[in-house]
Write a structure and sequence with these properties.
The structure holds 2 protein chains of 2 kinds. Chain A is an all-beta fold. Helices cover 0% and strands 45% of the residues of chain A. The chains are: A mainly beta, B mainly beta.
Chain lengths: 111, 117
């Protein structure tokens, strides 16, 4: 699976949009971009995933560049409960669904 | 969404004893489950892939005789840490694959904190 690069940490003010970047320059054509987050001492929580088109759900939006070498997760109105480590993962899914977690980005939402 | 239950949430044991952790898919059948380990302030590290009815596939560097995995049914996988030592103290997390789910297919348990004294 392609490697991803994320900033170690980011801060965001409560109520503002949080934009979390991820670089995956070696992504191949059949690999999806997944985003998970982990709140302290809990299991990871799925947020969103996409292949090439931008995606939106009730939690977040995922913007993937046209060359697919990077993406941005957007939390439109961050709350204090969004403070967590956010992981960007590239995986082909299919029969090889095991996810390899990198170090992720610690997002701290400040009041 | 699909629910994965992990038990116990935390366990304290003496060095040299064995500890069993259960991972159950509550509302779906999971032929494939995964076991992860996470040390403080570090990321999740995949330990093994658990396949129902067959032997688990371990990642490089993970001792299969120390971390016994059994996936005897479509809704239950167990991880047994044998002869636990303080260095095995960690947060263990399981996940289960639900091919029948529409969008998200991998569901995680809430984790087990193991402390070996």
């Amino acid at each position: 699976d392609a490697k991803t690069t994320q900033p170690t940490s980011m801060d965001c003010a409560e109520g503002r949009a949080a934009n979390l970047p991820c670089n995956h320059s070696t992504i191949s054509g059949n690999e999806y971009v997944y985003w998970y987050r982990q709140i302290h001492s809990q299991g990871p929580q799925y947020i969103i995933h996409g292949l090439k088109n931008n995606e939106t759900n009730e939690m977040a939006s995922l913007i993937i560049t046209e060359d697919r070498k990077s993406s941005t997760l957007i939390l439109p109105h961050a709350t204090l409960r969004d403070t967590a480590v956010y992981y960007c993962i590239v995986n082909s899914g299919g029969s090889n669904y095991k996810l390899t977690f990198g170090k992720g980005t610690l997002l701290t939402v400040n009041p | 969404g699909a629910v994965v239950s992990q038990h116990p949430s935390w366990v304290i044991c003496k060095s040299g004893t064995s500890v069993k952790i259960e991972c159950r898919s509550l509302d779906f059948q999971a032929t494939t489950m995964f076991w992860y380990r996470q040390f403080p302030k570090q990321s999740l590290m995949l330990m093994a892939t658990s396949n129902e009815g067959s032997k688990a596939t371990y990642e490089q560097g993970v001792e299969k005789d120390k971390f016994l995995i059994n996936h005897a049914s479509l809704t239950l996988s167990t991880l047994t840490v044998t002869s636990a030592h303080p260095e095995d103290s960690s947060f263990y997390i399981c996940s289960a694959l639900n091919w029948g789910a529409n969008n998200e297919k991998l569901f995680f348990g809430s984790g087990t904190q193991l402390s070996v004294l």
